[in-house]
Amino acid sequence: MKLPRSPHETIHGLVYFPRMVEKIRLHAAGELGADYAPNLGKGFDLRCCSLLSVNYEELVGAVGSILSDEEVWNWACKQGVTPTEEQIEVWNGYMTRRGWNDDLVETLERRKKEGGFESRKDIQTMFDYIDADEGRTPRQAPGA
Questions:
Q1: pLDDT tens digit string along 69-103?
Q2: Is the Cβ–Cβ distance between 36 and 124 less than 8 Å?
Q3: Is residue 140 pLDDT above 90, yes or no?
Q4: 139: left (phi over 0), alpha (psi -120 to 50) or beta
Q5: Which of 30, 49, 53, 66 would staple 71 via disulfide (CB 3.0–4.6 Å)?
């Protein structure tokens, strides 16, 4: 099984989109861990699709026939909307801080405990948790 890239990875400045696209590709190839499957198209994936005004299942179809992240990005912007610089800034600020002093605090604390990370002070957001859980060093958001 392969791990998707960090949620911090960007395309055109937008965090998370490359991770979502890679999860779709890995799942289609049978290379995504089974524990990821229940959340495909939900949670952060759904929020990202909502931002871009695209349907997740249609995105899955497009990813299956398009090779590069750039081509998938262009497809999404054509089918939905291209976020403005301000929308990207707001999205990035919101997403990189999820789990830090918001409605996901309890979820983050539960996930940290389940993963054996309860003593890790460097894991303050869901993006931090995802990175740590997948073996990467968390890249904390400024101010988190």
A1: 999 999 999 999 999 999 999 999 999 999 999 99
A2: no
A3: no
A4: beta
A5: 66
Q: What is the dihedral of CA 107, 56, 16, 138, to 10 degrees?
A: 30
Q: Under 8 Å CB-to-CB from 4, ≥6 apart: which residues?
A: 19, 22, 23, 26, 32, 36, 134
Structural domain spans, the chain:
1-85, 94-136
Report the distance separating Cα 54 and Cα 57, nearest Å: 9
CA atoms of 53 and 139, how far apart (whole Å): 28
What DSSP string runs through the chain?
Answer: -BPPPPTT-EETTEESHHHHHHHHHHHHTT-B-GGGGGGTTSHHHHHHHHHHT--HHHHHHHHHH--SHHHHHHHHHHHS-PPPHHHHHHHHHHHHTTTSSSTTHHHHHHHHHHTT-TT-TT--SHHHHHHHHTTPPP-PPTT-
Instruction: Return the pLDDT at 138.
Output: 83
Report the predicted TM-score, pTM, of the whole model to 2 decimal places: 0.92
At 1-22, the pLDDT tens digits run 899 999 999 999 999 999 999 9
